[in-house]
Fold each of these.
Amino acid sequence: MFNVRVYGLLINNNQEILVSDELIKGKYYTKFCGGGLEFGEGTHDCVIREFKEEMDLSIEVVEHLYTTDYYQPSLFNPAHQMISIYYIVRALEPIKIKLKETAFDFDETQLKKHAETGQTESFRFVPEHLFSPDLLSLPIDKIAAKVFKEKIASIFK
């Protein structure tokens, strides 16, 4: 089985990168925003839908950044092979949800959601100079972060 995931890397005008801090089945993960491709959906449509669902944020895809080019089993189901696609995205409107300043800063409503669904999330921006692949939890995210760091280093020179 293949598990296709699509993520968006959003950088704001202050040169900060958006990350999602998530509590999934009792474990903590910091990752990029995005999620699973649904049957019949294109990858651009997937990342646009995921940002709308998770953050109530309209985005547009700017460009492709990285696609998994090696075998990576799923952390949640080792019988599944992960294929992750990363895009640089741009917000089309101001962010409406409350962003957090620190990792895993979940409020009571979010913790109640975790009790019901086994998952919750919060979002925060990380300044570019503090952002590194080591900040992220998932192996493919770490590679995409490295590619992203190299790309933004050339943009902001």
Amino acid sequence: MKIQNLFDLNGKTAIVTGGATHLGKSIATTLGELGADVFIASRRENLCLEVASELRSNGINCEGLRCDATDEKEVEKLINQVINKTSRLDIMVCNAGGSVTNSYLPNASIDEFVKTYNINVSSAYICSQAASKIMIPQHSGSIITLGSIHGFLTGDKKLYEGMDFKRSGPPYQAAKGAIINLTRSLAAELGDYNITVNCISPGQIPKPGTDSNLVEKCRQQIPLKRTGTIYDIKGAIALLSSQAGSWITGQNIVIDGGWSIW
């Protein structure tokens, strides 16, 4: 098979949770550029609709749907909506996540810990299970989770000294660590059904508006001497969602410019 054909996603259907912003939007764009029919899902329905319209104007077959990825019933509804439109699900990208950390030890909020865990780990588990119910009868599918370098490295508090910037802290790091091992476990559970499950762990990919001093501090720590962009994850998404990555499962692909080699 020619290499171009290995990456071809024409006729495939993909869901990207948290697909309307930052990494999620880049992931949705990548899948659409490779030919997939893409559904982006988020709690912010209006933003989903706006971004889906933007992607369609760029030639991508995309639709926006509202869904809280931490709510099992809403995820099931999302899957049913997609199946009713396309009759199949080939790619599930569990991208929804983030951190609600505002307090730190020794006065940390357990509620913030639980919420951070839920929006990252519970959402990935719920979405993976819902997707598997469709993929198992198909005997095919790709599930991609989003980890972080903070899933196996802790954060350096010194990077944030002297600036008004919320760092993620232990709740986020614990949640992303759980995502990485959840991925391995899901790969073991679903391998019998020809379903691959892999994780992508990005490094420092600043969002618009991130403190420029923090960005520069991070840049100096990276062997390649630049922070990442939303385009730097596109290659890994293309690999893991397509036939090109059909014999890769249970892996955590780190995309960090070399940050983690120190």
Amino acid sequence: MTKETTDKTFSSEVLNAKTLVLVDFWAPWCGPCRQLSPIIDEIANDFAGKIEVYKCNVDDNPETPSQFQVRGIPSLMIFKDGKLVDSKVGSSPKASLTEWITKNL
């Protein structure tokens, strides 16, 4: 299941997580973000118990994307043990996202 994270909750939810965390930085007006959203939801279900999946609305939460130098959206970032370990900008097919996540597990 995909959850929302905010500037206030990012540190406790993402950086302090005990599992691998995927964060989708997005905005409601972004076409590719809306296109990617159902794929991110599927990935959250496919990897349930292995990773946590969060979405962060960049319009409502400007501090976190700025902290991690998000320049374009959608931006997907994988965090492990409180550190950013990999990132990907733009929309991708589910198969390539699954492969990308798997290599980071």
